[in-house]
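Researcher: Good morning. I'm working through a list of sequences from a screen, and I'd like to move beyond sequence-only analysis. For each chain I'm collecting a predicted structure so we can compare shapes side by side. This is the next one on the list. No need for commentary yet; just the structure.
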Amino acid sequence: MSREALGEFEQLVLLAILHLGDDVYGVPIAEEIERRTGRAVSPPAVYVTLRRLEQKGLLQSSMSAPTPERGGKSRRCVRLTKIGLTSLRASRQALDAMWRGLDPGLRGNR
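Model: Good morning. Structure tokens for this chain:
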């Protein structure tokens, strides 16, 4: 596993997958991020990130059964790997360590 830090958007995507559960695809992931953060997210940005996270070994994907409507398409669904969960936890620990000791006002107005 690479010790490469996760980017903010990568973390949001991984967290959305955790909230939604295994075998989820890009559109619901984008919607979950928008719902929880109020940030507009394009599905193509999610799909690019999913590919990158899979290449890093943080996700694995599989094709779903075709949707029930006539001519329905299969979807590429993803799930976190153990490495992905470990990486997400390490990211949180690093951020928590940086926030530790700062008051809610961030002491930025010294």
